[in-house]
Structures are given as structure tokens and as C-alpha cells.
Amino acid sequence: MANAPFELKGKTVFVAGHRGMVGSALLRRLAREGADLLTISRSEVDLRNQAAVDAWFAAKRPQAVFLAAAKVGGIVANNTLRAEFLYDNLAISTNVIQASHANGCEKLMFFGSSCIYPRLASQPLREDSMLTGPLEPTNEPYAIAKIAGIKMAEAYRSQYGSDFISVMPTNLYGPGDNYHPEYSHVVAGLIRRFHEAKVSGAGSVAMWGTGAPHREFLYVDDLADASIHLMKTYSSPELVNIGTGEDITIAELALMVAAAVGFRGEISFDTSRPDGTPRKLLDVSRLARLGWRAQTSLEEGIQLTYRAYLADNKWTAPERTACPDKWRKQADPRIRGRVSPRCPVPRRNG
Questions:
Q1: Active-site residue 156, yes or no?
Q2: 195 a known binding residue?
Q3: Where are the domains of the chain?
Q4: Annotated binding residue at 54?
Q5: Which member of 117, 142, 173, 234 is catalytic?
Q6: Does 221 show up as a binding residue in the annotation?
Q7: How confident is the model at residue 340 (pLDDT cuts 50, 70, 90)?
Q8: Using one digit for the tens of pLDDT, what is the confidence trace for 289-325?
Q9: Is residue 327 a known part of a binding site?
Q10: Which fold would CATH assign to domain 186-215+246-279+296-348?
Q11: At the topology level of CATH, where does 12-173+217-242 sit?
């Protein structure tokens, strides 16, 4: 894996998807790099429209591109809007990668997703496990579109010598997340549901599945920092996983979010609903060898995210709530169907 120093200072840098959680975090981080930042709204240029994308690239000619634009959502959205997730994400990736090549872009970073890995692949997930087995059915269309983007970046590097690289973030959360009641990711969804239950005085919150699946979560500002590091120092066709190397069960995550929000009611699990992939933990050894490790703990990141959620929605934040001692000592009686024998502390890989 060869290093190829690439300075962002003074470069014209396009962040595709700047209004999303990842794109907005990239803008915050890029503000320290001295780059000339380019952004466009969907009303200005629909990235699914090849002609519009080509015209914009020809006029602006960005020297570096962070391709973070995507149609994203949680398990409900992915499983319900399957055609939209496949079409929109294929079109965005295809159009931006081709336009970047055609207009002399010096470097491009494509953001994949950990859902590209087979459902039952060995854990932790290594970069070379892509396409070695069946995908998780609930988000297969999104995964296929992301795999296509990765392969496009590889193909343009192979055929044209384009310095296009791909990174694989784990599950993300943080400021700017989508808190839609049906289409949010798990951390954002839990923050909203626990907050609304606390405000309304509800005695319980119901969740999908058993609570048993393990997931890894990365604070989005850490992703942005890792992305800048790799954009400046990495140039190779191999994928790079970006994560923490730690995971936690969904039941434990629910307890952690409830503590941050200040919800004291019961947490139940609807076991008739699907769990999704049993475990998803990235092998981040390649990233560590490249000189980067995550800095924000899950507990701290959830606190920061909840504060941002309150600020965005103009609610009053409660006092910080630590994990109750009973979570460290015994099964939590508030959870029906699953129990947590301790305060939720993520497990570390390696």
C-alpha cells in the first residue's frame, strides 16, 4: 500500500452530499485544510442526472472529490424502498465518478458502507471479504450500488490511472443525522424515540428484533478526520475500513442512549421483527497501520449527538445521566425479552 502525499491546501475540493451527516462533518474538518470548498444543492444539480453533473464538473473542474452523496436510511427504509435505493445510489456513483475522470480530477474518495460485506462473513470483517458470500437481504439493493461504486473506482484506477480510492465506514452517528421516525439509522432513531418518550411521560419504548445483534458505531467527526488523513496519505486500489474496532449489542446500545437522554421507562423488544445481520464489526488493522485510530468513545459521542439533536430541535437538554450502578451489577429489569448484565461498554477488536 503505497503512500502518495496529496495536499488539500489550495486545492478546489468538491464535497458531494454536503448537507448529509457525512458531508457536513467533512466540511467542518476541511475548514482546517485551507482548501477552496465546492458544494451544490440538489435543486442546483441533481447528481442522478448525468448531463447536469457533466456540465457542472466541466464548469467547476474540482481537483479533489469526496463522494459522500447517497440515499441512506435504516432497516425499514432499505427494505421498503428497494428500487429507489438501488437506482439513486447507482446513478450518483456512476455520474460523479465518470465526470471526475472526464474533467481531470486529481483525486477522488468514494464512501462505501459496511453492508457490502456478506451477511455471514467471518468477524471482524476484512476488506478482502467483499463478494465472498450472500449479502444481508434487507439492504441488498443499497449494498449492490455501493459495491458497484467501489468497483468503478478500481476500474478507473486500473484503466486510466485515476487516483480514486474507496473507504468503508462502519455504522455512523453524530450531528446532522436523520431522525425520521421510520427511515433513521439506529442511534438517531433511538435518540428521538427515547427523548419523545421521556417528554411525553411514556412508560416504555418498543424496539425491533431481539436486541442480540452486535453493531459497531463511529462518531461522524472521527470519520471525517480519518477521511482527510487517507485522502492526504493513501493511494492504492485496496479498500480501507474505517471504524473503531469495537462493537456492542443493540440491547446495550438502547440502555446507553436511554441513559444519555434521561429515559427511565421500560425497553421492550418485538421479536417478530427482523434483526438484520447478526454481527457487523470491521477489521481496522489496515487503518491502524496507516496511522489513524478513532478518538471518540461511544458514550461521549452519543452525549454530543444528543446535545446537537436538542439544539437542532430547540429542546432543553437534561443533566448528563451516568449509567446506573444496577447496570454494572445485575440484569436490567426494564428490558423485556433481553437482559443486559452490565453497563454497556463496547467490546474491542484486537
A1: no
A2: no
A3: 12-173+217-242, 186-215+246-279+296-348
A4: no
A5: 142
A6: no
A7: very low
A8: 999 999 999 999 999 999 999 998 754 444 444 444 4
A9: no
A10: UDP-galactose 4-epimerase; domain 1 (3.90.25)
A11: Rossmann fold (3.40.50)
204: β partners = 266
Annotated binding residue at 61? no
pLDDT tens-digit series, residues 174-217:
999 989 887 788 999 999 999 999 999 999 999 989 999 999 99
